[in-house]
Design goal:
Domain ATPase BadF/BadG/BcrA/BcrD type (chains A, B): 7-297
Keywords (chains A, B): Kinase, Transferase
GO molecular function, one term (chains A, B): kinase activity
CATH architecture of the largest domain in chain A: 2-Layer Sandwich
Largest interface: A-B, 23 and 23 residues
Number of strands of chain A: 10
CATH topology of the largest domain in chain A: Nucleotidyltransferase, domain 5
Distance between the termini of chain A: 28 Å
Helix content of chain A: 40-55%
Pfam families (chains A, B): BcrAD_BadFG (PF01869)
Strand order of the largest sheet of chain A: 3-2-1-4-5
Number of helices of chain A: 14
InterPro entries (chains A, B): ATPase_BadF (IPR002731), ATPase_NBD (IPR043129), Euk-type_GlcNAc_Kinase (IPR052519)
CATH class of the largest domain in chain A: Alpha Beta
Oligomer: homodimer
Shape of chain A: globular
Chain lengths: 325, 325
């Protein structure tokens, strides 16, 4: 191979994806594996996963490790130095080690939204959190988890929806269509069985969050669903509010996580966001977290990503992404 | 013995207490045992517990089972018929069976507040719930547990307190004295360690609820603590609001659970309660749940509890209660 190559790996809760490309933004191949969340899999499994992904990329491209400058692994659950060190330790005997950089997958999401390392990320997934990175310093606002209140999260959305069913039941009100759907979703006939069902779930938080989809499907037609979604969005706006003084207003606020994948939710949110914070811009990342990890690999070699390079990345990504989504 | 006797047993989360008395309200002896919560102990343990308590009462009084008309066991966790049947089944081979009546401990708390079987109970313990019993029918409002939001509970109180610490930290505000105490309570130096500590607890909900005491101690002096307590009380008032149409306004609303044991909390709450619901009366039970269970035993024999009997109960109870509290 002429010139060097860079690998980006994005390890999420359900899948891990990898991409390899050159310094001009030509993405050559992608690979896909299982969950890369360090809190869910063992360090041995993570080691095998990363090696497999790299091998897949090498087989597709005929590249060898000596052609690779950096492997940037952005892994869920690798937020703290202790976790990152665990991953480095796993590669102690491997030639990959000297090329490996480990970070949280949050950094890849941020890079996917900003094309760079710095900026602010608003995550509305199962949890809700603001993550900022400026001048090599990170800050977090929110992200307190379900026990201390994850307002603005998918859990919050699901919880409010289930509560609306229980409230209707307590007040002897008839159920709305989306509330009936929540009962069917849990396979129960009456609201008072819901509580037992939720607490009896193997993963109650996931069970509650799973209801969010039903509300999102209904909120354009149903007033109760609309007010639930509005409450969740208000909580996200308040999260921005409380982080406001620390947000770099020269960069967009990147919207990340499952709730923003819902188009009507995303559209309504950005309208409210703009009217509340006219000096801020909120956007969904134009590229995937996998490409974000690749960008971070380039950054490690201090390679400037110019506009033509960005275009090349987007063009070549479009040809590859079908293989891993 | 001349005449018959009645036994009341109140099984709670940390202790179970029993009392024996006659139809004129003369309480003769009390006994104390460990937790009687069916969700926490096995049915064999519960069987042994109840037998031990009865034996203790018999030893103290020289009474035998043939002198006893009814043993009323009001046990935490025995809300549903299935659980009650389990307890009856455990006594299948025992002569106690024909005298045994099993109910939830909630009924004993209600009886302790109303001297009768019917009325409304507002519970603000680890959970928050309204429990009503009218014409042999029960109703419940709230009580959805921590995952679906137990607004008005000790968990809610603790959660808001911890959130106030995290919020202060997110906004780089100095901590108030009671917030510092929360850090010491969890043995951490910085608010961001709180989250790890709470989620790492064996019983996170109990850990969060345990903070309530710190807020209650502070709320008369500290404005943030005051507003937290006010939010929790407002949630309890809203619970009453949503149950309002089903509450029997001829009977008092009985206040039950740990939060009401705090005198300033109780006093402030009753003031707000009276101004919000001028046609309702809220009160703390004049007698204990153990005596409530004894009253329910009397009710099983359709014995009227007249005012002189009530006086005798209160007088004789005062002599005994020191032994079991």
């Amino acid at each position: 191979m002429a010139g060097k190559l860079w690998i980006g790996i994005d390890g999420g809760g359900t899948k891990t994806t990898a991409v390899i490309g050159d310094e001009n933004g030509h993405l050559l191949a992608v690979a896909k594996g299982s969950s890369g969340n360090l809190t869910a899999i063992s360090i041995e499994q993570l080691y095998t996963l990363i090696n497999n992904l790299i091998d897949q990329l090498f087989i597709q491209t005929g590249v060898t490790l000596s052609d690779v400058e950096t492997v940037f692994a952005a892994m869920a659950g690798a937020d703290r130095q202790a976790e990152q060190q665990k991953i480095y330790d796993a590669f102690k005997q491997s030639p990959v080690l000297e090329k490996l950089r480990v970070q949280s997958d949050i950094h890849a999401a941020l890079a996917a939204g900003t094309w760079g390392r710095e900026g602010t990320l608003l995550i509305a997934g199962t949890g809700a959190i603001i993550f900022g990175y400026e001048q090599q310093k990170t800050f977090r606002v929110g992200g307190w988890g379900y026990l201390l209140g994850d307002e603005g999260s998918g859990y919050h959305l699901g919880k409010l929806a289930i509560r609306s069913v229980l409230k209707a039941h307590d007040n002897k009100m008839p159920l709305k269509l989306f509330q009936e759907k929540i009962l069917s979703h849990f396979n129960v006939l009456s609201p008072d069985q819901l509580i037992t069902k939720v607490y009896g779930s193997t993963n109650s938080v996931a069970a509650i969050s799973s209801v969010g989809r039903i509300v999102l499907d209904a909120f354009e037609e149903d007033l109760i669903a609309k007010s639930i979604v509005s409450t969740v969005q208000e909580a996200l706006l308040e999260l921005i509010e409380s982080a406001y003084s620390r947000i770099d207003r020269t960069k967009p606020v990147v919207l990340h996580g499952g709730l923003f994948s819902n188009k009507p939710f995303y559209e309504r949110f950005t309208v409210r966001f703009s009217s509340r914070f006219p000096d801020l811009i909120a956007l969904k990342p134009p590229i995937s977290g996998t490409v974000g990890a690749y960008l971070l690999a380039l950054h490690e070699s201090e390679i400037e990503v110019s506009d033509p390079v960005k275009q090349t990345i987007q063009q070549t990504w479009r040809l590859l992404e079908g293989e891993i989504t």
